[in-house]
Design a protein that fits this description.
With 223 residues, the protein is α/β, with parallel strands linked by helices. The protein contains eight helices and seven strands. α7 links the parallel β4 and β5. It comes from Humicola insolens (Soft-rot fungus).
Length: 223
């Protein structure tokens, strides 16, 4: 298998899609398929990382690969294949980290942000991770062959000023759907950023938590 797939790539692409998590498989199936050879990796990894919003099941090494790829230090541009970014899942992952975690190995040492030099500053770490994702996706938008795929952004529970959300939205030119847990996160500057940078955007959803149960509050279609 060192010379790559012998059947046409189209056939192996169908296999990779069939192994995609959610099709009665878990992420490990597709990951093992990607490890067979470089040809399989090229077909399988975009499928694997397109479901990176499944943050509860993704290993720290894969989060590390996604974030490190924004710095150009990985073999593949994993960050370009993410289709949905759920900040609640990212927050959950960061809360599980401990000082000295392998996630903070090179080239992500600067993400090990401490609070009073003792505990990890989780909101600051999440903020820096999203900043790292935003900038290169925005730059790639000018290259038709390397446009980012992120279409859905869901905010989390950490405080999120509208100005910061507007900056992030501006970096996702293929954004279609925005989901917010707090109406205060949505400001006029967020709407302006969407209109100026997200031509395919269709709707925003505001969720209100009541007795731990999410409720659908509003869904509006952009003009």
């Amino acid at each position: 298998m060192q010379d790559g797939p012998r059947l046409p790539p189209e056939i192996w692409r169908v296999v990779a899609q069939a192994l995609k998590p959610g099709n009665r498989n878990n992420a490990q199936d597709l990951f093992l398929f990607a490890r067979v050879c470089m040809g399989f990796a090229t077909l399988a990894l975009p499928e694997l990382y397109s479901v990176h919003h499944m943050g509860f099941s993704f290993m720290p090494s894969r989060w590390h690969s996604v974030v490190a790829s924004t710095l150009g230090t990985t073999l593949f541009p994993y960050y370009l294949w993410i289709t949905e970014l759920d900040l609640s899942n990212l927050e959950y992952f960061v809360r599980k980290l401990r000082p000295g975690s392998p996630f903070f190995s090179r080239p992500l040492e600067k993400l090990e942000i401490r609070n009073w030099e003792v505990d990890l500053d989780c909101p600051a770490i999440v903020n820096e991770i999203v900043n790292l994702l935003t900038n290169p996706i925005r730059r790639a938008a000018d290259d038709e062959m390397r446009q980012g795929s992120l279409a859905v952004l869901k905010t989390g529970h950490f405080p999120l000023p509208p100005s910061r959300l507007a900056t992030w939205v501006s970096g996702f030119p293929r954004l279609v759907h925005l989901q917010a847990l707090n109406v205060a996160e949505l400001d006029g500057i967020v709407g302006s950023a969407i209109r100026a940078n997200c031509p395919a955007f269709t709707d925003v959803l505001i969720l209100l938590r009541h007795f731990e149960q999410p409720m659908w509050i509003a869904s509006t279609r952009s003009q």
